[in-house]
Each structure stands twice: as structure tokens, then as C-alpha cells.
Amino acid sequence: MPEILTITDPEDDRIADYRALTDVELRTRWEPPHGLFIAEGSLVLRRALRSGHLARSILVDAKRVEEVANLAGDGVPVYAASPAVLQATTGFHVHRGVLASFFRKAPRLAAEVLGAAARVAVLEDLNNHTNLGAVFRGAAALGIDGVLLSPSCADPLYRRSVRVSMGEVFAIPYARLDPWPSALDEVRAHGFALLALTPGGDAMPIQRLSSAQRSRPALLLGAEGPGLSPAALAASDARVVIPMRSGVDSLNVAAAAAVAFWELCRDLPLARGN
After folding, report:
1. Which domains does the chain have, with CATH numbers?
2. Interval 240-254 mean pLDDT
3. SS3 of 146, please?
């Protein structure tokens, strides 16, 4: 077991990576420029390690040290603190009792993601970290091979996105598409059909897509509320809709993504356990 270092002062510089985790603006200025992200909970910690991410440090409730200390690699400091110190440092009650700081990997290029995928999701302006994490979890569960993000999308490695995805952001390759929306031409050049999910009256039910359109789908999803921009809609090859009942006009973007992912991937071989 590595040496456990006790932290008693929330202002201790050794745990600066974990300071003010609820301040989105501060974390946006701190994490990407410093090449790090934060994982919360032992399950997410294990998934980050399994995906090949390297830990910078682990911060844990002193009562739960044995739960994660053996996961730390050589030279990775493990800091133990009381719940009060954890809360004062992070800005919230760390009820899972486990946090870890990881090095970010070099970002992928869109061509790398597209070249290895048969089905992708393309997200425009998704700024809600909860929705973003849920979309990644749905993508991993239902058969989507990669995710492409417009430049203004939120960071998939922000703590809340990672937590909501249950660490599936580490399993799904993703990249930024820039410039937007002209970079959608690159998606089409890789043989994908650009399918815009929209409640618009000119959209066809998604279950009526042809075999050709289903063979290499790139599903475009817009932000909660505004949906896809006119430019993204214009760039699409087809507009599709999830038929609604009982007067409901739309679903939360993460729920809509899951339904559409299932429809686009329903002919894939069943995964073990299904």
C-alpha cells in the first residue's frame, strides 16, 4: 500500500487540483489549461484507470483509504482527509468519499474518430454537463462508436459529465468539429449520412430511414431548448423525428438521444446479458 498523506488544511497546496469543484467557471479555467480532470467515486476512478488514464493524485475520506489506496500507481500520492476538510476544499459534501485527479490524454482529431466508427453522434452546443454525460452513457450502452462536438459544447471531462456518464466518457472516442458547421462536410466525406433529429414538421419518423441511411448514420443533436441551428439543419442529409403521443412535443435531449441511438443500432448483434 502506498504512503497515505494526511491533509488537515483545505488550503494545502498539495490538493489544489480539488479546490472549488462546484465553480464551473473556475474549473473551466483551471482543468484544461493544467491538463487534468477530476473523477468522483471509486467506480469512475477504476474506469478511468482501466481506460489508460494516468492518475495525478487521489483524495479520499480517511475512513475509506483501504478502498482505493491499492489502485494508486507508483509515485501517485494518496491524500486522506476528514469529511469536513473534503467539503471545505471542494465546496460540496463528497458523499462517495473518493476523488481523483487525472492527466488528460492528447485530444483526438475528428478524422481519427470517424475513421474507426460506423455510427456517430454529432452534438451542437450542448452546454449542460448532466445532459452531456447522459448522452455519452447512452452512446456507450446502445452502440454508438464515437461522438463529435461542436466547438461550443461543454467539456465531457468535467466532473459532473464524467459522473453522470458513469465513466463512459472514457469508453467512447470523441473529438471537436471545427470550424462549425462547415466541418460537417468532413463527416459526410467519411461516408456518413447526416441525420438531424428535430421535431420539425418536415422531419420523417426515424424508424422509416432507408437501409442506406442506416448503414453509416451520423445523428445530429442540438441543445436543450433551441435544438439544432438552421445552419446544422441545412447541412443535414435528412431530418428525422421521434414520433410523440399524448400531445408531448419533445423529449429531454439525453432521453431523445437514447431512443434514437436504440433505433439506429437495433439491428446490431445483441450484447451479452441482453
Report:
1. 4-103 (3.30.1330.30), 110-265 (3.40.1280.10)
2. 91
3. strand
Q: pLDDT per residue over 123-170, tens digit each?
A: 999 999 999 999 999 999 999 999 999 999 999 999 999 999 999 999
- Provide the 3-class DSSP secondary structure of residue 16: helix
Q: Could you read off the pLDDT of 164-189 as tens digits, one per residue?
A: 999 999 999 999 999 999 999 999 99
Can you say how many angstroms the Cα of residue 34 is from the centroid of all Cα atoms in its chain? 19
In terms of Cβ atoms closer than 10 Å to its own Cβ (0-12, 13-18, 19+), residue 247 is: exposed
**Confidence (pTM):** 0.93
Return the C-alpha cell found at 72.
494508486
DSSP 231: H
121 grid coordinates: 453522434
Calculate helix-pair angle for 129-142, 253-265, nearest 10 degrees: 10
Q: Name the amino acid, one letter, at 140.
A: A
CA distance 258 to 35: 31
Q: How far is CA 136 from the centre of its chain?
A: 5
Pairing relation of β-strands 36-40 and 98-103?
A: antiparallel
Task: Name the maximum alpha-carbon separation found in the chain.
Answer: 63
Tell me which DSSP letter residue 143 carries. Answer: T
Q: How far apart are CA 167 and CA 47, in angstroms?
A: 6
φ and ψ at 88, to 5 degrees? -65, -30
| Rg for the chain, CA atoms, rounded | 20
Q: What share of the chain is helix, strand, coil (3-state, %, to 5)?
A: 40, 20, 40
